UniProtKB/TrEMBL annotation, chain A:
GO terms for biological process: protein sumoylation. Keywords: ATP-binding, Metal-binding, Nucleotide-binding, Nucleus, Transferase, Ubl conjugation pathway, Zinc. Its main location: nucleus. The lineage of its organism: Eukaryota, Viridiplantae, Streptophyta, Embryophyta, Tracheophyta. One of its GO terms (molecular function) is transferase activity. The keyword Nucleotide-binding applies. Residues 299-367 form the Ubiquitin-activating enzyme SCCH domain. Residues 553-629 are annotated as: Disordered. It holds the Pfam family UAE_UbL. This is SUMO-activating enzyme subunit. Residues 441-532 form the Ubiquitin/SUMO-activating enzyme ubiquitin-like domain. Heterodimer.
From TrEMBL, chain B:
This is THIF-type NAD/FAD binding fold domain-containing protein. It comes from the Eukaryota. Pfam families: ThiF. Belongs to the ubiquitin-activating E1 family. One of its GO terms (biological process) is protein sumoylation. GO terms for cellular component: cytoplasm; SUMO activating enzyme complex.
Length: 629, 237
């Protein structure tokens, strides 16, 4: 940060400040309002999103007429109405874009985050470290929220406390042995829906073969020429809920200690449907969005449908896709705002759940799970925005003794809403801000460079456009502006196993990995290992060395191993040091129960063909709670 | 009010779409009750408009604003509901101008101006409300209204809020408040809270006053000093 003398008063500091706000959504709207009212007059806002109806219950700078427009631009206009003389520059863009480089960040006195995903947060963290600009981070979920301050050299950076890896489900759990509703949702979304309506070229784990030699086709999901839609639908139904289950039951070993699933056939759940031929429900209004619920007269999304109702919805939704949205079939990707897709996935998940003895859920609940919906209210965002500005003002005045990490939650025993804690010192083993090398256990003889880059460098380390060097040999580079022969060379290297790279990677080799844009560089020491546990180490490689030293295991449940405290950390308020564990854990548990797939690590996982885990949005609010437990 | 009133009293599709994220926080039942609630806010200023914004966004049944003060330039500093356009706010009361802005936030909520003086409102007037929020009122007025809230046959919740510099205070009187508390792994348990009236609470406060030094800038500081069994304290960090 530019070494100007700290301004005399907070008023002066605010007047002179140039501030960057990343995110103009729930927190962003409240924050922009508070900044404007507090006297800030030079603000940049970045947000890539457009406005949706479900935003309007809390993002108060937006109106229904703004749906579809850029959040950043509309927010700016709304603020100027009551503060016409301040300077706001809005960017409808992704903060990860190349234009927002270190030089861009350097122009600001402080950066304020109002983001909703881990990926972007890490990216901003790295840029702030590189530009040496303080960062005030924040997050909210329902009634919970927190604000944290990150100043290079003085406090932890955002990544000093490793964020837990996102929850992923083993393929077999999804395809064969679901035990929770979320498993059924993932199956319905990533397998069934994708198979029927998505890209046909994508690999899919759904069993497509039929045992009876009657059909000559390879893929039972293919519609026969001139096959009646009703018949097609029922055939698929019987295949996935009936036949496939019977096949699974044949493997005795699987069911030794598990409840056996019940195959479900259309003739049992909807006997009358089988008799009807070629009849289709009357979907009168062509202009309205097609909806199976509407056709069937089901009006309450909170209602839990019976097996029969779910079956009707499934068949009806299936038919509506083919009747009304045929052009989209083959290109569809599940979207939580696609009513018909949500209906289809809900029904399919419920029927599967019924088979496996898992409780059924309403459309409302299923949508939340399938769409990774984060619950949210206006008030928490307003509180958090206020706290952000309070911390920002301290930062502008270099008032580091008073920096606080503030947690907004219901303290279990004291009647307090806000819990301020002094920030920790930087983690000396944080690979992001302390440049300590990491360790990677991997089989260098069989693992390709490509896998290391995808699973570790891009995914776990969060690098966007990485560069991989072994000694002085550049084996891989990502980004624009590569020469053809360079790109070809890198493409070749991706497919080579580590031991066979131009500069061979073997036990003891040190990789240097960099992301030029994030100005992040780190070293990875390689340790060769032959065997990896399929269940516990599905990636076939293990990265270590980036967790904080655990001095105190705070969570009695034993689950949180990354709970850390450094000797310099002191709670401002003595009561904070030992919050009643059951109370806090209960809060966290409740959240985890209601949003199974949205635990501290992330939201429901995409199960892709090669078991890759996609890191999806995580809410640090929950993660922070764990740290303090 | 709101979207309620249909025979089955289910939320409309419009409400479900708009309130989706918050229904996931407090449930459909709470949303329905919210949509039937009527709120009165006496004293329109920076603090209370925050509340107004939040309660309107949430879909309350109706909100009435009482503040006959004419808008001045001073109001523009802390009130984001007032556009910087004298042709819009000139000569109008705070309640009038803010009412118009708030309607915009959520067309499903009935926002209206209530003309009058808080110190003069009578029992029958407040009967139409479920909640009364008071700000920048004299102690006498606060006591008067709180007393009225308690006298009515229906329980009217009473809140008094004020902000001075970087201090804030809130007094809450829900009289006898019962709610269901979720227990881990068990059945929800009925809980009862008994709130003291302002009169009673003030008596306790005076009692402890003698032992606490009175800060110069704010009597609010006392609220943070007294052991409070009653109103939740909001700490400002």
């Amino acid at each position: 940060m530019a070494s100007a003398a700290a301004p005399a008063s907070s008023e002066e500091a605010v007047k002179a400040a140039k501030v960057l706000m990343v995110g103009a959504g729930g927190i962003g709207c409240e924050l922009l309002k508070t900044l404007a009212l507090s006297g800030f007059s030079d603000i940049h806002v970045i947000d890539l999103d457009t406005i949706e109806v479900s935003n309007l219950n809390r993002q108060f700078l937006f109106r229904k007429s703004h749906v579809g427009q850029s959040k950043a631009h509309v927010a700016r206009d709304a603020i100027l109405k009551f503060r016409p003389n301040i300077n706001i520059e809005s960017h409808h863009a992704n903060v990860k874009d190349a234009q927002f480089n270190v030089d861009f960040f350097k122009q600001f006195n402080v950066v304020l985050n109002g983001l909703d995903n881990l990926d972007a947060r890490r990216h901003v963290n790295r840029l702030c470290l590189a530009a040496e600009v303080p960062l005030v981070e924040s997050g909210t979920t329902g009634f919970l929220g927190q604000v944290t301050v990150h100043v290079k050299g003085k406090t932890e950076c955002y990544e000093c406390q490793p964020k837990p890896i996102p929850k992923s489900y083993p393929v077999c759990t999804i395809t064969s042995t679901p035990s929770k509703f979320v498993h059924c949702i993932v199956w319905a979304k990533e397998l069934l829906f994708a198979k029927l309506f998505g890209d046909k070229n994508q690999d899919n784990d759904l069993n497509v073969h039929s045992k009876d030699g009657s059909s000559s086709k390879l893929d039972v999901f293919e519609r026969d020429v001139d096959e009646d839609l009703d018949q097609y639908a029922q055939r698929i139904y019987d295949h996935v809920f009936g036949y496939n289950i019977e096949v699974a039951l044949e493997n005795e070993e699987t069911w030794k200690n598990r409840r056996r699933p019940n195959p479900v056939y259309i003739r049992d759940t909807l006997p009358e449907a089988v008799k009807q031929n070629g009849s289709s429900w009357d979907c009168s209004n062509d202009h309205e969005e097609p909806s199976a619920m509407a056709s069937l007269g089901l009006t309450n999304p909170q209602e839990i449908w019976t097996l029969a109702e779910n079956s009707r919805v499934l068949l009806e939704a299936f038919k509506l896709f083919f009747e009304k949205r045929e052009k989209e079939i083959g290109n569809l990707v599940f979207d939580k705002d696609d009513q018909l897709a949500v209906e289809f996935v809900t029904a399919a998940a419920n029927i599967r759940a019924h088979s496996f003895g898992i409780p059924l859920h309403s459309l409302f609940e299923a949508k939340g799970v399938a769409g990774n919906i984060v619950h949210a209210v206006a008030t928490t965002n307003a509180i958090i925005a206020g706290l952000i500005v309070i911390e920002a003002i301290k930062v502008l005045q270099d008032d580091y003794k008073n920096y606080r990490m503030t947690y907004c939650l219901e303290h279990p025993t004291k009647k307090l809403l806000l819990m301020p804690v002094e920030p920790f010192e930087p983690n000396p083993s944080c690979y992001v801000c302390s440049e300590t090398p990491l360790l990677l256990d991997v089989n260098t003889k069989v693992t390709k460079l490509k896998e290391v880059i995808d699973k570790i460098i891009k995914s776990k380390l969060g690098m966007n456009l990485p560069l991989v060097m072994i000694g002085s040999t550049l084996v891989f580079e990502d980004g624009d502006g590569l020469e053809e022969d360079e790109a070809a060379n890198y493409a070749l290297n991706l497919e080579k196993v580590l031991a066979e790279l131009p500069a061979p990677v073997i036990n003891g080799t040190k990789l240097t990995v960099e992301d030029f844009q994030q100005e992040l560089s780190c070293s990875i020491n390689i340790k060769h290992r032959e065997e990896f546990d399929e269940e516990k180490e599905p990636d076939g490689m293990v990265l270590s060395g980036w967790s904080a030293p655990v001095e105190k295991q705070i969570n009695s449940n034993g689950e949180n191993k990354s709970a850390a405290s450094s000797s310099s950390a002191r709670a401002t308020d003595d009561t904070v040091e030992d919050p009643s564990k059951p109370g806090m854990k209960r809060k966290l548990d409740e959240l985890l129960e209601t949003k199974e797939n949205c635990d501290a690590s992330s939201s429901a996982q995409v199960v892709e063909d090669d078991d890759d885990c996609t890191m999806l949005d995580g809410n640090p609010a929950l993660i922070k709670k764990k740290r303090l437990q | 009010g709101g979207g309620g009133g249909a025979e089955e009293e289910e939320l409309t599709a419009q409400e479900t779409a708009l309130y989706d994220r918050q229904i996931r926080v407090w449930g459909v039942d709470a949303q329905k009750r919210l949509s039937k609630a009527h709120v009165l806010v006496c004293g329109v200023n920076g603090t209370t408009i925050e509340f107004c914004k939040n309660i309107v966004l949430a879909g309350v049944g109706s909100l009435s604003l009482m503040d006959d003060h004419i808008v001045t330039e001073d109001d523009l500093n802390s009130n984001f509901l007032i556009p910087h356009d004298e042709s819009v706010y000139g000569g109008k009361s705070r309640a009038e101008v803010c009412c118009e802005s708030l309607k915009d936030f959520n067309p499903m909520v009935r926002v209206a101006v209530a003309k009058g003086d808080p110190s003069l409102i009578d029992g029958t007037f407040i009967d139409r409300f479920d909640i009364i929020v008071l700000s920048r009122a004299s102690l006498k007025t606060k006591l008067f209204i709180n007393d009225n809230c308690r006298k009515r046959s229906k329980h009217i919740a009473f809140y008094s809020v004020d902000c001075k510099d970087s201090c804030g205070e809130i007094f809450v009187d829900l009289q006898n408040h019962s709610y269901l508390q979720k227990k881990p792994g068990g059945e929800p348990e009925q809980q009862e809270l008994k709130y003291p009236s302002l009169q009673v609470w003030k008596f306790n406060l005076n009692f402890f006053c003698r032992f606490v030094e009175i800060k110069s800038f704010s009597s609010c500081a006392l609220l943070f000093c007294t052991p409070s069994l009653f109103a939740p304290r909001i700490r400002f960090v």
